[in-house]
Design brief:
It is a single chain. The chain is an alpha/beta fold. The chain has 2 domains: 3-155, Rossmann fold (3-Layer(aba) Sandwich); 159-259, Orthogonal Bundle (6-phosphogluconate dehydrogenase C-terminal fold). The chain has 9 helices and 8 strands. The chain has helices at residues 10-21, 50-62, 80-85, 134-146, 157-179, 193-199, 206-215, 217-239, 243-259, and strands spanning 3-6, 26-29, 43-46, 71-74, 96-98, 100-102, 123-126, 151-154. The strands form 2 sheets. It has a 5-stranded parallel beta sheet. The protein has a 3-stranded mixed beta sheet with strand order 6-7-8, covered by helices on one side. β3, α2 and β4 (71-74) form a beta-alpha-beta unit.
Length: 262
């Protein structure tokens, strides 16, 4: 599938490079420029920050520059807000918007850090509209596999946002708060894998992650409140010297890890 990417950042650049590696024609365009001629491309990725994604997708569909049968896919990490705003996207017959979210990234952003293997082994999440042709989704699944994705997961926007609040956004919040401890500046010689894992992410682009956290507040706040409550329970047990309570809390963590799906 010939691939156009609007947005020359980490994800956009990696889509371009992964598509080229797979043998597809691929071209990347800057997000702030006018909509280019997209009439020769089978798939168009809009790889822009959340606030820029909706207006750009509207511009793409209204431009009349899309190929018939083309799929437009976004990469925003919140889906319900995007789907709600674009539910009446004026694409015309035979042109489809398919909300997407590649589960891949790096702690460093920008096109210079993009790479052809960013998506190897990752999941591509789609939240397609009800009228999306099944044969198009099948083509996209094969396409994403060629780019290195291990699986394509299809779900609802609401289910996506609930799970992403926990598996992604909460992790960035924890990492950002953790690294702000003054002791982090003195970690050398006293840190190993657990420290590196904790500080690796931490919302590397504050502009983008501020948008994502606020756009997904409905799903994120209950997850964050639950985490804070569990931390408070551990703090209370440590503060009171209650070894039995602390041991029971840690045991519940061990059991929860056993129940995790691979």
């Amino acid at each position: 599938m010939d691939t156009a990417v609007i947005g020359k950042g980490l994800i956009g650049g990696s889509v371009e490079k992964a598509a080229l590696r797979a043998g597809f024609r691929a071209e990347v365009f800057r997000g702030r420029a006018e909509v280019p001629d997209l009439s020769s491309f089978d798939i168009v990725f809009v790889a822009l920050p959340p606030s820029a994604t909706v207006p750009k997708i509207r511009d793409v569909f209204r431009s009349g520059k899309l190929k018939e049968g083309a799929a437009v896919v976004d990469i925003v990490g919140v889906k319900e807000a995007i789907v709600r705003e674009l539910s009446l996207c004026p694409g015309g017959p035979g042109r489809y918007f398919i909300p997407g979210h590649p589960m891949a990234g790096k702690e460093k952003t920008g096109y210079g850090n993009s790479c052809e293997n960013l998506f190897d082994g990752a999941s591509m999440i789609l939240t397609p509209y009800g009228g999306t042709p099944p044969q198009l989704l099948e083509r996209l699944e094969k396409y994403f596999s060629a780019l290195g994705f291990a699986r394509t997961v299809k779900t609802s926007p609401e289910a996506h946002d609930r799970l992403i609040a926990y598996t992604s956004q909460l992790c960035h919040i924890i990492s950002s708060a953790y690294v702000r401890n003054p002791l982090s500046a003195r970690h050398s010689g006293f840190s190993a894998g657990s420290f590196r894992d904790m500080v690796r992410v931490g919302a590397p682009d504050p502009d983008v992650w501020t948008e994502l956290f606020l756009a997904n507040a409905k799903a994120l706040l209950p997850v964050l409140d639950g985490y804070i409550g569990r931390l408070s329970g551990m703090r209370d047990a440590i503060s009171s010297g209650d070894a039995a309570a602390l041991h029971a809390i840690l045991e519940r963590g061990v059991e929860a890890k056993k129940d995790m799906q691979a």
